[in-house]
Design brief:
Growth Hormone, Chain: A; 23 helices; about 750 residues; Rossmann fold; about 55% helix
């Protein structure tokens, strides 16, 4: 106990106040993250990279907050600490209430990462900085209040992370479905004011219990016991750094990996972060000593099915099982790293330095994923790299390779496996004929790897070999001819074979965003101008253009989302087409005749506008379009800001009185027709839907769902009476709360 403080060993007031403040601070912090991510998503097309960039911003501010807490507590006496922190709190009120700066528009021709970081700083920088200082500063203050647990305040970190965890879980299931964004921002601002009152109360309690020490030196007030504390070594600090850095990078890597192929909303992005925070709750509790050895065992055991089914042979699993595999593997890896971090935590004299190193590592991990990986990798390779790095950090038998020949073998054997495998992949023709044999060999290697689970270098090295060879094998089998990564995801062009009308094999090109197919083209000269996939002639789009063929010669048409460019092959010479596409990389791919010919053959006169479609359409003249086609997808989902009531009102303001809005709503996970149906009722629009299923086995004619809408029911009457396809009125849904810019709820539309 601090010898200069008033004794309060049996009082629970200090614990309740400090733990409650830490809980409230963490709750506000992790409500703010998804809330402001949702505010920003509409400006950048709903990309997963928006969330990852926001995460980097939060990590940077968290580091700066921890640096401030470390400097304040190590350089200044308690009285000065309290005074300065109160001034900072008062300054932060200038940023309330929360909101985006006026005239906020992202760049369209360049990577928007730096613009996004600057916007976040202006909007929430000061309040978030104050919240970020709370965990280390209040734990350091608690070490001085004279409570009988003040000698080890790390357990308060559990209250902090419990608040984080509860807020993250409550946001998608309680806050988002019931409270609009405007009210969320106001409630958060009010909660922040209450938090500041709690922080000041903690400062006053500290002031009262340390009146004699208030003007003492930091070194004297930092002394709680007479025990001698050994100085920290550089090796210990670096060990803290890597144990915190790898989970941070792994978090963002997994987030990017799973969000590419599921919904483009914050909901699924919260899952990895929730597990990440749960690990802190567990490891900084009293259970860690018992839990940590079990986590190391579970990690080693679970790695076998994880590698087998997530990397070697992933095609046999449904998406939800695939998601469970990756999230469980992530949880065990982070539990081991954070368990080690908690096990080697230092004396309270170094508490703020410990948290500072953790936050610095988190920031470095986030910066690697956001600023480095997208420029050096053409896919999300940072994720498997960090899986291997986490295994290297397992405690076990290690030795210097310079002194132990067995340790040399632990490095050389995996390296040889990787080298030999890639040489074979590059030089042996028809290697895919032996796909099953190679996969079985990798499965056997996975089982053998378990034998060396207590040797981290060998365990990680063999895992690296298995993942590398598996990725290479699937790269060969996917016949990828081009792959590149942008802010908006990983795009690839692949060779594929289909069976044509004559039952003969035929080569095609396919466009993928992550693992979702966004377009395809047959390469025969006579077939290069025929749209396929979701835009096929037998399908809803082909029916629409054919039914209105007599009156659409001079139509002005806008289409949101380019894909491979198939839709422009419905264009006629007199028509004016404008294509809205947010990602310059998609335009680059579609314009390259080595991959696709749609734009080259059909769309030479089409105008191309880069940027978020809603912002671009808002700048167009009123009543410009006869037909507006909404075909924007981020992987498998329509960005939510293109589906709101205000968005539809915007679209119809740009349509002529008899104009038609066509909405592509094909989705494996979400029932988007519920949202569109509700808008049609609210805005009194005529709407027809066709959930198209091919009648026979036609090449590249696929299942697809489209909705067409108009102000006047007579506009759609030709389609309703058409025998080209089965168009029907949208079903009515009475349990939907309208989606607006202020409110969206993805829970309501899960299939």
């Amino acid at each position: 106990m601090n010898q200069t403080s008033s004794p309060a060993p049996n009082s629970n007031l200090a614990v309740i106040l400090f733990a409650g403040t830490l809980f409230s601070s963490a709750t506000l912090m992790f409500i703010l993250q998804p809330m402001f991510g949702k505010i920003l998503l509409p400006l950048l097309g709903g990309s997963p990279a928006v969330w990852n960039t926001c995460m980097v911003f939060y990590q940077i501010l968290l580091f700066l907050g921890y640096l401030y807490a470390h400097y304040l507590s190590s350089r200044l006496n308690l009285k000065r600490q309290i005074q300065i922190h109160i001034v900072l709190i008062l300054l932060s009120f200038l940023a309330l209430p929360l909101g985006l700066p006026e005239n906020t528009v992202p760049p369209t021709e360049s990577n928007p990462t730096w613009w996004l970081l600057w916007t976040l700083f202006l909007a929430i920088g000061l309040p978030f900085f104050v919240v970020s200082t709370t965990a280390p500063l209040l734990q350091k203050w608690f070490a001085h209040v004279g409570h009988h647990t003040s000698h080890d305040p790390y357990y308060l970190y559990t209250a902090s992370n419990a608040g984080s965890l509860i807020s993250l879980l409550s946001y998608p299931f309680l806050v988002e479905p019931n409270i609009g964004l405007s009210l969320q921002k106001n409630l958060w601002s009010g909660g922040f004011v209450i938090l500041c009152i709690f922080i000041i109360s903690c400062g006053l309690l500290l002031w009262r219990s340390n009146q004699k020490a208030m003007t003492g030196s930091p070194s004297r007030t930092a002394s709680h016991t007479t025990e001698t504390v050994e100085p920290l070594s550089l090796k210990t600090k670096l060990h803290w750094l890597v144990l915190a850095l790898v989970p941070s990078s792994l978090l963002l890597g997994l987030t990017n990996f799973i969000s590419t192929d599921i919904a483009s909303v914050p909901l699924l992005w919260i899952i990895p972060l929730t597990l990440y925070l749960l690990t802190f709750v567990i490891v900084f509790s009293k259970w860690n000593d018992k839990v940590h050895p079990w986590m190391m065992r579970f990690q080693a055991i679970f790695l076998i099915p994880f590698l087998a089914f997530a990397f070697i042979d992933p095609a046999d699993l449904p998406y939800w099982a695939y998601l469970i595999l990756h999230t469980l593997a992530f949880f065990f890896a982070v539990m081991v790293c954070h368990g080690e971090l908690a096990r080697i935590r230092p004396h309270t004299q170094y508490l703020t330095l410990f948290y500072l190193m953790m936050s610095f590592a988190g920031m470095l991990g986030g910066m690697f994923n956001t600023f480095v990986a997208p420029f050096i990798f053409n896919a999300v390779y940072e994720y498997p790299i960090m899986i291997v790095a986490a295994l290297l950090l397992r405690p076990g038998r290690t030795a210097s390779p310079l002194k132990d020949w067995q340790s040399w073998l632990q490095i050389i054997i995996p390296a040889l496996l990787i080298a030999v495998g890639w040489i074979l992949y590059s030089n042996v023709p028809n290697l895919l004929d032996y796909f099953d044999q190679i996969a079985i060999s990798l499965m056997v290697l996975t089982l053998l790897m378990f034998v060396v689970r207590n040797r981290p270098v060998a365990f990680a090295g063999l895992t690296a070999a298995i993942i590398s060879l598996s990725l290479g094998l699937h790269g060969l089998s996917s016949h990828t001819i081009y792959q590149e990564r942008s802010f908006f995801g990983v795009f690839s062009v692949r060779d594929a074979m289909i069976e044509n009308e004559n039952n003969q094999p035929e080569k095609i090109h396919e466009l993928y965003h992550g693992t979702t197919k966004h377009g395809a083209q047959r390469l025969a000269q006579a077939l290069q101008t025929i749209p396929y996939m979701y835009y096929s002639q037998p399908g809803p789009m082909g029916q629409l253009f054919k039914e209105f063929d007599g009156q659409n010669q001079n139509w002005t048409i806008g289409t949101v989302g380019l894909g491979a460019g198939a839709l422009v092959c419905y264009s006629k010479p007199q028509q004016q087409w404008t294509i809205y596409e947010i990602d310059p990389l998609v335009i680059k791919i579609a314009q390259n005749a080595e991959y696709f010919h749609y734009l080259e053959r059909c769309g030479k006169n089409a105008a191309m506008k880069v940027g978020d479609a809603r912002l671009s359409i808002a700048a167009e003249p009123a009543q410009k379009f006869d037909l507006l086609i909404m075909d924007a997808f981020s992987s498998d989902s329509v960005p939510t800001h293109l589906l709101t009531q205000e968005a539809l009102e915007l679209y119809f303001s740009k349509l002529k009185p008899n104009g038609i809005l066509a909405f592509h709503i094909t989705n494996a996970h979400l029932s988007l027709k519920k949202v569109i149906s509700d808008h049609a009722q609210q805005l009194k629009l005529a709407a027809l839907i066709q959930e198209f299923k091919p009648q026979d086995n036609q090449p590249l004619v696929v299942v697809t769902d489209w909705v067409v809408m108009a102000k006047n029911p007579q506009t759609l009457e030709p389609l309703a009476q058409s025998r080209l396809g089965y168009w029907e009125k949208l079903p009515l849904y009475f349990d939907m709360k309208p989606w607006t810019d202020d409110f969206t709820n993805i829970i309501d539309i899960w299939k």
